[in-house]
Known about the structure:
The structure is a homodimer.
Chain A: H1 12-26, H2 38-44, H3 49-61, E1 65-68, E2 72-75, E3 82-85, H4 91-95, H5 100-107, E4 112-122, H6 125-131, E5 138-148, E6 151-161, H7 162-165, H8 179-186, E7 191-201, H9 205-210, E8 219-228, E9 233-242, E10 246-253
Parallel strand pairs in A: 3-10
Antiparallel strand pairs in A: 1-2, 4-5, 5-6, 6-9, 7-8, 8-9
The structure holds a DNA duplex.
Amino acid sequence: MPTIDRSDGRPYYRQIADDLRRRIIQGQYGPGDQLPSERVLTEDYETSRLTVRQAIGLLRTEGLLLAEHGRGLFVRAAVPVQRLARTRLDRAQRQAGAGAFQTDAQRAGFQPSVDVDVYSATADARIAELLQVSTGSRLIVRERLMMADKVPVQLSTSWLPAELAAGTRIELRDTGPGGIYARLEEKGHLLARFTESVRARMPSQDEASALRLAVGTPVLAVTRTAFDQHGRPVETNDMVLAADRYELTYEFSAD
Amino acid sequence: MPTIDRSDGRPYYRQIADDLRRRIIQGQYGPGDQLPSERVLTEDYETSRLTVRQAIGLLRTEGLLLAEHGRGLFVRAAVPVQRLARTRLDRAQRQAGAGAFQTDAQRAGFQPSVDVDVYSATADARIAELLQVSTGSRLIVRERLMMADKVPVQLSTSWLPAELAAGTRIELRDTGPGGIYARLEEKGHLLARFTESVRARMPSQDEASALRLAVGTPVLAVTRTAFDQHGRPVETNDMVLAADRYELTYEFSAD
DNA sequence: AAGTGGTCTAGACCACTAC
DNA sequence: TAGTGGTCTAGACCACTTT
């Protein structure tokens, strides 16, 4: 029977969280199962509702529990994870037609859709360094919200030096078959190399609502830069991915 | 002056959080600065302390604020980020002497130290698949807690088929110069290739306390598998990194 | 000793979901 | 309509840090 040890040094809400966490891990409550309501837990643990809510808040930020207003508390079920492999950027993949996101989504059985916004801007310090241009240089910026079966799953912002995009479909919403990389190669910038840097953090308010993230879901922030055959950076790209829906994979030689 | 709009649809605590967030982003409170105390904020916003604490809790899980018991509320300062590049696993690096962590830490100006635990176990389904052995096979497991200037920064667990480690220093706490990869190569398993998969999630209770993570800090979970010249997996490794202290970088060709 | 954040109580009413 | 989680009040005492 669940109770609180009033002489235990731990605060009550931690004892409750530890107890519920143990039950979940041991399988007493499985993925998708409903927990007793907050009021029932309050009676079970002989405490106040706020204390129970503190415990539940802890398990929510740990990503273990999901609260649904008017319905109840549920053990969070694992989401099918989409794997993003390095090979999504191989030339063969790029030339196959659509962009990387479309290809991935369709292979995984999702119906992809994209909202695009294109505008011009000037380079701040960070983008200037990534693209090896001067701060204040003119850029084309492409912001995209990618959806799988109409569920937002990925934010992406691309920056390109304005003169590389000038007069191409990169300046339009629809960049045509193969996406911006195909347009760059048509212009003589053969893509030679990518760098990617990966970080994780909690989402901003805007990202959380755009991606409809549950409390306790971090994001993966990936910055990719594309270099042409002369070693010149031709595009850089910030991707924000819901961490519970994506896995990134890389492969490299040991030499 | 800060106040709450009682007719605004948003809950009070969100209005307060939005207001404080705006002030932080606009620079009214810079990194490391102290905010007014909870009781002062309660008066400023003309509400109850719990409502202020809810707002602060939001900003803490977003990673914007840090609360220090008995001291006050502070804007979280950016931590110096350690970059983990693919090249940390190059043969030249590995043969230079110490393991990857020691090399990285010393280059970054930290004094590295490591707690190690070595024991034998049997393969569960996941490890069996990664190492391409049968479930239940005998393994050597090496658990490590890495510290930089005595601050825990990284957890690492390695699994190797028992027969590859048998009779080598891989079974000991101190594996000798070059670490386990050097011992494997001495035994004729030349390392050819690594795969890494990267995910992000909120830490478990154990990880949070082992790595001394602040509320609102996710972890990067990296699984690396090493393959020998015959394509056989010889080791697999789970790394858990504090996301606010690490950045992973990768580089690959566009072909 | 004074000020800070951390924990806790015993209520109340609102918003949402299901029957 | 009943049950659920979400928000809010007005207190109280504890644990920690600083002076």
